[in-house]
Amino acid sequence: MATKKKTKAGKPAAKTKSAAKKPASKASGRSVSKAKTAGASAKKTAKAKGVKAKTSASKSPAKSGSTTSSTSKKTATKKGKSVKTSSATVSRKAKAKTKKGQEKPAVEVIELEVVTPQKSGSKPSKKKSGRSKVEADTKVAANNDADDDDDNDNDGDGRRPARLRSQPVEVQEIDQRIDRERKSRLVPFTPRSYGKTPKKPKPSEIVDLLGKHMGKAPSLPEKQMPATVIELGIFCIFALGGNSAKASLDATNRLTSRFPVWNEFRVSEAYEFLEELEGISLSEAYDHCEQVLEFVNEVYKDQNDVDLEFLRDMTPDDRLVALNRYRSLGPALSQYLALALQNFEGVLFHYSWARPIQRVGIIDRSGSPKKLCASTEKSFGGLDTVTLQVDLIDLGEEICLPKAPNCKNCYLVLHCKSRKV
Questions:
Q1: DSSP of 55-91, one letter per residue?
Q2: Residue ranges in the chain modelled with pLDDT below 70
Q3: Which of 106, 254, 288 minimizes the C-alpha distance to 183?
Q4: Does the pTM exceed 0.85?
Q5: Which helix (H) or strand (E) holds 419?
Q6: Is the CATH number 1.10.1670.10 carried by domain 198-219+344-421?
Q7: What Å distances lie between residue 259 and 176, 249, 264, 276, CA to CA?
Q8: 3-class SS letters over 331-386
Q9: Helix, strand, or coil here: 6?
Q10: Which of 68, 296, 377, 405 is most exposed by smallest CB count within 10 Å?
Q11: Domain extent listing, the chain
């Protein structure tokens, strides 16, 4: 028990309790020992994992009734993700009553920084960049401008216009078919009755029937032949449209005399040609003027000159191959011009005229082009073989097709033994 003593002034003075002093020192001793033990175990763990441990000891005076805590921060990086920090309390609260001026026992504070090595296959973490609103608006505006430029390059269907050379073969065939239909010479034909059995025709009946429905392909005597191959092609374009040889030749001579320079000729317009052809009886004159202008421009683009005189030195087969490159002519006009280069004589093989003539049954079927040409010359000897070839090519290209022939609208349906009606 503590005793009270009186001072000289008569006031009691309280001494520090000796019984309370010992437990306080023991409690502080326990906290220090536990803190040291925790620090030692943390150091061992850090060394085992290959981690650097940083320790720092700090001493600070404490007031009576204050609490002391030791915190450790652990930072770990896992698989390239953001760093997480955690704090742990190492020591417990120690309560001690001390005298005035007595210093608090030192507490050891340990700070740990644990960093796990990043795997080689993991991706580095991306830093979040705070982009300003002005930069974002600028980027969006730039993207919109790029989209507008792309839209200007696209056509009405949203696709980029491609050149003809880059288009597939199917698309080119469709374009050629549409162009042929626009320039087609075939008139819709449907007979009153197909009859039970087809009638075997004579060669002269076939020529007359084709000339009646499709028009003739007139020939020129050698003295009246145009001087150049280009002029001969212009004559063929006018003549195959159902016009007479005289009217077609007059139209050719008038245009070439009015525009003697081919560069001036090809940059002219179709209506200018039409004005020069006034007084000449031509059927569908404007369409023929457009085709003439297209033919001359196509020759210029292909040869870099308006000249086809080299065709005279070629064989008939090579001549057809060279002329078939010009889409403005087509198969029938190419055949017509090739025959004109040999004075409108002979028979030149083409699949489109050989197919319908064999289906009709006038000549025997054969896989040899030479035999087919010889049989045709023999069967139609003395007749207009030029009209026969040219008209049969148009018929084979548009109606008498290889796989799906339109027999009901064919001019030769009443005489064809291979018809399907």
A1: EEEE-----TT-----EEEEEE--TT---EEEEEE-S
A2: 1-167, 169-170, 172-173, 175-185
A3: 288
A4: no
A5: none
A6: yes
A7: 30, 16, 6, 10
A8: HHHHHHHHHHCCCCCCCCCCHHHHHHHHHHCCCCCCCCHHHHHHHHHHHCCCCCHH
A9: strand
A10: 377
A11: 198-219+344-421
